[in-house]
Amino acid sequence: MKLKSWKKKGTLVTSVVLTAVILGACGSSGAKDDKKSETASKIKLSAQTNISYMDSRLATDESSIQTLNQTNEGLYTYDLEGKLIPAAAKEKAQTNKDKTVYTFTLRDDAKWSNDKPVTAEDFVYAWKSAVDPKTGSQYSYLYDGVVKNATAILGGKKDPKELGIKAIDDKKIEVTLEKPVPYFESLLAFSVFFPLNEEFVKDQGDKYAKNSEHILFNGPYKMKDWDPTSDSWTLVKNDKYWDKKNVKTDTFVYNVIANSGTGANLFETGELDRAELTGDFAKQYKSNENFVSTAGAFMYYIKYSQKVDVAKTGLDNLNLRKALNAAIDSKGLTEHVLSNGSTPAEGIVPANFVTNPDTGADFRKDAKPVIKFDATEAKKLLELAKKETGKSTFTIELLNDDADGSKPTAEYIQDQWQKNLPGVKVSLKTLPYKNRLELNASGDFQAQLTRWGPDYQDPSTYIDLFKTGSSYNMMDYSNPKFDDLLVEASTTQATKPLERWNTYIEAEKIAIKDDAASAPLYQNAIASLENPKLKNFKRFPYTMTALKYVYLEK
Predict the structure, then answer these.
(1) 361: three-class secondary structure by DSSP
(2) How confident is the model at residue 554 (pLDDT cuts 50, 70, 90)?
């Protein structure tokens, strides 16, 4: 299917009622009647899922974290070219010789949206609150083994007040680490390290961040018209932002459009400036002049629970997990189901993400594939699993969600397992995205189709997922040898880049190839239709799009 040229009226195939609702939220009258004057001030984008949280301590999903990155910022952020630069900090940190103490100086003009200054105490409060077990932050693990005393605090052995961060004065922060951490500064651009104004948070009480009226912003944009049930929201330029003169666009309007067909129709009529595509729609529009495919760093994979209903699933059996991994033709998945430029996974660490500190070789080149499709080998492994368990059949429920592309992928996995593994029966449990996240957080699943995007640019952001007790493990996977390697990489090898590199290669092999803790499926690509006048809409493997730089060419 070939789209008509941008701004030309096309024929909608979605229901009149649905389209009317979405167009109303997009501001259709402006798009159709006054596009020329609108282009400089408003951009209309689609989102695949709702925002779950706007509390920087609690956000875990892409929509939430993406929006937090536009409305708030930490000590550092990423520029248009994906380079780490100072944000709330006025310059890069000063460090001691051992790189265990960092001193940051805040900008004098860094302000909250209520015109109050961003202070050192805002960071101290936010960080201590994030590691407090009472807060329930899933991303608190990013502090673990990094900031001094975080491990003991997370384990309930020390008070959050003892975290290694202090305000020297209103504009100066001192952070003490447990040990040198090669990727520490890249953590500072991630949302769980953003500041919070204690007075405001406590004044809002239970209402804090429950909707856009009860949030403070210190980033390029402020948020309007949002609560957790919203299918649309608006970002407007923050006039208190320190760098407001370089914010290119006044307003971004988001609408949740889970169906690629609806998004394509809205794009065709000029009601969206960018619409993401999956599956058949990605195939149909590949030759269109407005089609764009961008490589990402989200790894889609299957989690196997080794504790939930294992009497039925058999997923505590190593050979069954290995059989399931070998039975999936990921190339067929990416080419025939997704068709958006995604590539088959060769491990849990993506390609083109991190490079060898000595040679510059990509991680995947050095690590080699640790998972591959082999239907014959899968059947052999299944027979071993049957002998070891005394079972002739295994019944597995595969949890997935309603995000565009998730259910077709789950259906493909179901078909692969049942076709290539006689005796394996698979049912699908499809839930709204937010509900799947809730089951994931509680560990209440047998097998689950999920994904992980990097929080910083280092292989540990993926490999640490499998650490015993990690808040993102939830599979009951544990291997002491694997854990020991992670400890070694983060301690004695912290200042030995090549040794640390090789340790992570070995750790990935143990978790994925030897233990089949999960089944990596594919590395994502994002297919979209984009207004040719949309400029600077860039994505990097280790960060979010910076809307601050995005604009529509007049």
Answers:
(1) coil
(2) confident
